[in-house]
Amino acid sequence: MTPFEDKKVAAAYEALPEETRAGALTLRELIFETAASIPSAQPLEEALRWGQPAYLAPKGSTIRLGAHKTARFALFVHCQSRLMGEFTFAFPGEDQIDGNRAVLFDTPDQIDPTRHGWLIARALTYHL
To answer: How far apart are CA 115 and CA 15, in angstroms?
Structure first.
C-alpha cells in the first residue's frame, strides 16, 4: 500500500465504514499505480476535497473517492467533464453509473484494473 503523506487524508479513510474503506483503498492503489505509469501525471497530489480523498495530476481533472448514497463506494470525476461520457461509450453497460459524475461499487472485486484504470488515466491526463 502506498503510504499516506497527509494525516488528514489517512483520517478520512479511517472514518469510512469498513466495506467502503476496503474498496476506496483498492481504488486508491489503482490511482497510484496508473499515475506511476504516466510521466505527465507526476507529481500526483493527494488531498481532501469536499471532505473526500482526492487525486489531481498537473494536467488532469480531479478524481475523488468515497461513500455514495446508493452504493458502498464510488469513484467520482468532475461532472462537467467529458470523462463519464467517454467511459460509458467505451464500456457500455459494464458498470453502475451515477449520471456524469461517478462509477458506483458495492465490493472491491467489482473494480477492473483495465476498465477503471482507463478512466483514471483519462482523468489524470484530461487537460493534455
So the answer is: 28
Nearest-angstrom CA–CA distance, 14 and 37: 27
Q: Is the separation of the CB atoms in 22 and 106 below 8 Å?
A: no
DSSP state of 55: E
d(CA 106, CA 126): 27
56: β partners: 45
Give the integer Cα–Cα distance in Å for 111 and 4: 22
Cα 58 to Cα 43, 61, 76, 126, distances in angstroms: 7, 9, 18, 10
What phi and psi values does residue 7 have, to the nearest 5 degrees?
-65, -30
Every domain of the chain and the residues it spans = 7-125
> Looking at the domain covering 7-125, what would its CATH class be?
alpha beta
Q: What pLDDT digit, counting tens, does each position of 36-57 carry?
A: 999 999 999 999 999 999 999 9
pLDDT tens per residue, range 71-93: 999 999 999 999 999 999 999 99
